[in-house]
Structure formats: structure tokens, C-alpha cells
Amino acid sequence: MVNLTIDGKKISVHEKSTILDACKKLNINIPTLCHHPELKVDGNCNICCVKVEGKDDFVQSCSTLVEENMIVKTNTDEINNKRKSILKDILSNHPNDCLTCEKASGDCELQNLCYIMDVNRDEVPFDGKIRMDLIDDSGDSIVRDMNKCILCGRCISVCRDIQGIGIYEFNNERDLVNTVDNKPLKETECINCGQCIKVCPVGALYEKTQIQEALKALLDNDKHVVVQMAPAVKNTLGEEFGLKPGTDVTGKVVASLRKLGANKVFNTDFSADVTIMEEGTEFINRLKEGKNLPLLTSCSPGWIKFVEHNYPQLLNNVSSCKSPQQMFGALSKSYYAKKSGIDPKDIVSISIMPCTAKKFEANRPEMQINGIKDVDIVLTTRELAKMIKLKNIPFLDIEDEDFDKFLGKGTGAARIFATSGGVMEAALRTVSYVLTNGEMNDIDYKVVRGLEGIKEAEVEINGTNVKVAVVNGALNAKKLLDKVVKGEANYHFIEVMGCPGGCLAGGGAPIPDNIEIKELRKEGLYNSDKNNEIRRSFENPEVKELYDKYLGEPGGHLAHKLLHTHYLD
Ligand code: HC1
Ligand code: SF4
After folding, report:
1. Do both 55 and 155 map to the same domain?
2. Distance 188 CA to ligand 2 centre (A)
3. What is the Å distance from ligand 1's center to 192 Cα?
4. Domain count within the chain
5. Which residue numbers delimit the 4Fe-4S ferredoxin-type domain (predicted)?
């Protein structure tokens, strides 16, 4: 342990602590901008500067390790003036459009610091012009507005160090963040995961919004609008209204969507159960034939783009199942359209997702049938919260309502799709039952639960040791797949999710999320699973009806036409 004094208070901390860590322990507030608890310390902004006795220059509290008998000052006029001058420098290059900025008021870390440090706009007018060439909206999911960038470097770090992709870099002068080779985002290997949006302290990165498109469709009497809601949305949207992470707000979201004008409110959990029927069948067939193993899951569109770019040799291993989002879309315009006598061309299929990559997925050329897109509009959890606020819907007081029939029921197995390990557990609940003709009745597969980046387990089914792995985050996927490709790891089935932690921490989820928030969301999802009277996909009565009355067998001809794909890239 190391002993030091900060602002006259003595403290002992671990020798690997930074001055900033020690200040936190003493509840001393130090302003930060580039610092983020889950990212590598880069020390780009200097706003956390402090003074150390015996040193003439300011030191960065985020990157300086504590030393024995160090005496630190954090709150003198000299320090506060230095911080203010750094903030003024940033502000003098920052556009003046806080009123209409995509970053919600209260969420912008720059705005909050200006308020706390009493920096006024009239002291530092912005007389530059917005440069349109610094706005990149070429992609389907992410918009970059480098006019707003404050050069903190968090996007560089999360993309490179957490996701292992490395789309961004500083230019030589370090006065601009570029994409590698200066390409528009759409032409890079960006997987649309949106993790960079979540760490951006200002409004320089945001999802490509479709709110206006959705509101227009919801008001159009000639259109029949069906909305699906992803598993993660149900246990996270409440955070946008001040509720504890993990709180199940399904009934309130359903009621809010009806108030917004949805003709039918349906459930992605329903199509997640269908996914288990299809992917489970595919797995059983591959296991029997010993072909194209390991089977790799296909629900996460960021992961699909990642495997296309980096492991094309594994594309035959990827499940041919569309994701639950896309299966739902296809069924809404076939099964539901037929059942309700509505022309599929008049249906607008909207999905609410915790994921920015789902916007990209819905626009993929593979995701349409006879020229009709499966899903027309994808809104993130944050966009839906904004719409609810925009339309003055009293979310916290609204009476719970239930989903509409036919595509509305979901099991507990479907709900846990939203947390890392959930797709695998849902699949094992059904596959083990089917392979043993009902003898294996296990519901809880705790070995695949948890937020660790890579998990492995063996499950004995009918005398076969089924080897499974679960990975979340693109960098972890890379680590595992490198072993698979080299023949160093032998699995039968691998679940991969593109975002660290799975969909509960998707790029469209409420901000912030950190490890404590992720844990609470995870607990909420498992509680919702436990509280569901049906916890295995094959027992979902609406899924049974779908197969009995429309699709026939899982993996059959019609199921293949509607619910499966192959990737063209
Ligand atoms: Fe997901 Fe999925 S779990 S990918 O995270 O398989 O986005 O929630 O909707 O499609 O069901 C996301 C979540 C989601 C799909 C399902
Ligand atoms: Fe990197 Fe994901 Fe951001 Fe794309 S969306 S730049 S892959 S962090």
C-alpha cells in the first residue's frame, strides 16, 4: 500500500492506483473528459490536472501513479483556472447548437463540465462554421459529426481495445479523428456495434435516427403498423425514466406503443422462440451428420459483419437462420398478413432494438422476400424513449397492457437471448429435450451464464459430450475463432454476440452502462425468465400454432423460404 495526502487528507491506496483513483476513494471530485473507467488511459484532455508538491508542472491525475508520501492539491485557484482554460479551448472549437444536439441535455459531459466550472458561452464565442465535410452519415447505423468532436480519443480506444476492430485514429497533427484511410464509415470494416456512440462524451457520434419516419408511418391511416420489441428493451427502457436497471417494463412499453399509434404490438421474444426451433433443428442435424461444426449463432448482425470480413472460411459454419428481428419481420408480412387479410405491401414493420447494427441488418439485400423488406424501420431503445417523451406519454403512470395475439407470446428462454449465454441456454433447453425424447428436462444451464468474455462448457446429452462456447464482444470472438481456425479448439456449438455482455449492452441501449448496470440488467432478465410460466421455446403455444397451421415442420420448405438466408458478401 502507498500512503499519500490529498487536499490535507491522508489515505492509503494500492500501489497501482492513480491519483484519480485515490481522489475517488476520498470522494474528491475531479473533472474528466477523456477518462472512462472501462477504457485504456490515454491522457488526451488534461482536464483532470492536479498539482503535486515538488513538481512545477501540472500532472494528469488519470495517468499518474501514486507515490509514497506524495502531497497532492486538487482544488486551488491555479488548478481551477488551468482547467477552465482547457475547457474554454475546447469550447472555442465546439459548435453552438446545444438546443438541437443529438446528445440529450444532461447527458453531454462537456455541457455538464461548463455548468459545474462556470464557463459561459459569451466568454468563448464559436465563430467557426459547421463543415459539412466533417459529417459522415454514409452508413446505415452510425453518424459521425466531427464538428462536435473534442478529441478525447474514447471512440479510438473502445473500437481498438475492446472490440478489436480499430476503425478510428488521430491524424498526424492530432487535431482530428479520422477513419483508417479516411474512408466513409460505410466503406470501412465497422460492424455497426455502436459501442463508440456509448462512450462519446458529446454528440459527435449517434445513431442514424428513424424517429420521423416512424412517426409518419404511425400517423398514416393507409398503413398497418406492426411493432416488435426486443428482449433487452423490456428490462432496460425503464432506465430512461429513472427506474432501476433490469426493471421489467414490458406492459408499459406495450401501452406506450399503442398510444403512439401502433396497430399491433408484437414481441421479438416470439420469434426468438421460433429461432430456437429452427437453429435447434439445424444443430441436431449437423450434430448427427458431423457436418459444418461448430455451429455458430447468427442473431447478432455486428458479429455477422465481423465474420464476413475476418473469417470468410467460417461462413458455412454460421447458422442459416435469420435473426429473430428478421424472422419476425418476414412472418409479419406472410403469416400475420394472411391471418389478418392485409396486403403485405400495406404493412409497415417497425422494430425496437437495443442495437444499432439492427438498422444495418434490416437494410441488407438478403433481408427481403420478393422485393418486400422484412423490417422497414429500426428504432433503438433510446429513440423509443425519446418518442415517448416527445408525445408526452406518462410512461411511469401508464397502465400495463399485453401484447397482441399470434406473434405476442414469448418464453423465458427467449427473454434471456439478451444476455451473453442466453441463446445457448435457450437452445440447450430445447435440444436436450428433443434429443432425449423428453427424458432430459433441465431448465437452468448456469454454466453458460455470466458476463465474462469467453465461457466454455460441456453438456452430456444422450451419451454425447456436447462442447459449447459462448463469446461476447468482437475482440473475444477473434481470440476464440483464431483457436478454432488453427484447430486448437473443438466445439460443437458457439454463441457469439458482437457487443461486450450481449444485447443488454448493445449500441442502442440506454447510456451509461457500466459493469454494475450490466449486472443489474442481467439479473432482471433472469428474473423475467424465472417468472415466466413457460420457459422452453417448443412449449410456446403461439409457436406451436405457427408450425401447425402455417409453416409445417421446423427446417421445412416454407420455414427455409421465410426464416433462413445465406450471406451474399
Ligand atoms: Fe438482441 Fe436478438 S437477443 S440480437 O441482442 O437474437 O438487438 O434484445 O432482439 O434479433 O430476440 C438485439 C436483444 C434481439 C434478435 C432476439
Ligand atoms: Fe468501431 Fe463499433 Fe464504432 Fe464501428 S460502431 S466504429 S466497429 S466501435
Report:
1. no
2. 10
3. 15
4. 3
5. 140-170, 182-210
φ and ψ of 351, to 5 deg: -125, 145
Closest ligand 1 atom, residue 230 Cα: 9
Does residue 569 surpass a pLDDT of 60?
A: no
Residue 1 CB-density burial (10 A; 0-12 exposed, 13-18 middle, 19+ buried): exposed
Tell me the ipTM for this assembly. Answer: 0.95
Please name the residue whose Cα sits nearest to atom 1 of ligand 2. Answer: 159
Predicted confidence (pLDDT) per residue in 55-97, tens digit: 999 999 999 999 999 999 999 999 999 999 999 999 999 998 8
Q: What is the pLDDT of residues 470-516, one digit of tens each?
A: 999 999 999 999 999 999 999 999 999 999 999 999 999 999 999 99
Residue with cell 397492457: 401
Measured from the CA of 357, which atom of ligand 1 is nearest?
A: 7
Query: What CATH number is attached to the domain comprising 117?
Result: 3.30.70.20
Mean pLDDT of 196-207: 98
Among the listed residues 49, 101, 299, 355, the single catalytic one is 299
Pairwise CA distance, residues 522 & 449, whole Å: 9
Contact call for residues 379 and 205 (beta carbons, < 8 A): no
- Which residues span the domain enclosing 432? 212-563
Determine the residue of 325, 351, 364, 537 to mutate for testing ligand 1's pocket, defined as the one with the most ligand atoms within 8 A of the Cβ atom.
325
State the Cα–Cα distance between residues 500 and 489, nearest whole angstrom.
22
Share above pLDDT 70 across residues of the chain, in percent, rounded to a whole number: 100
Known catalytic residue at 38: no
Residue 90 lies in a domain: no
Q: 274 with 412: CB under 8 angstroms?
A: no
Cα 487 to Cα 482: distance, rounded to the nearest angstrom: 9
The catalytic position among 102, 279, 383, 425 is: 279
Q: Are residues 202 and 224 in the same domain?
A: no
364 shares its domain with 406: yes
Read off the CATH number of the domain in which 292 is found. Answer: 3.40.50.1780
Among 152, 184, 207, the domain boundary falls at 207
From the CA of 319, the nearest ligand is 1
